[in-house]
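New to this. Please check this record:
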Amino acid sequence: QVAYDVASLLSMGRWSLTPFGRYEVFDTQDEVPPGFSADPANDQQILTLGVDAKPIPNIVLKVDWQNRSNEADSGVDQFNVGLGYLF
């Protein structure tokens, strides 16, 4: 996972603007009991690219896109939007 606050380079005052990327590989059925077979849809790879913006330290708006793939070729990409408040 990588991220960097570029607002400090752009003289944006109190704002924080942080592009980020994350790559995950996992298989929730890496091992199964004898007599069972693993579902290839659980052998996943996920690439997430996005940005979060903090106009003030207690509020964040986050958007990202996820490229989801798996061994069953049934992965569905998704777009996410989030809003957070720390009180």
Summary: The longest strand covers residues 43-56. The chain has no helices and five strands. The mean pLDDT is 93. The radius of gyration is 18 Å.
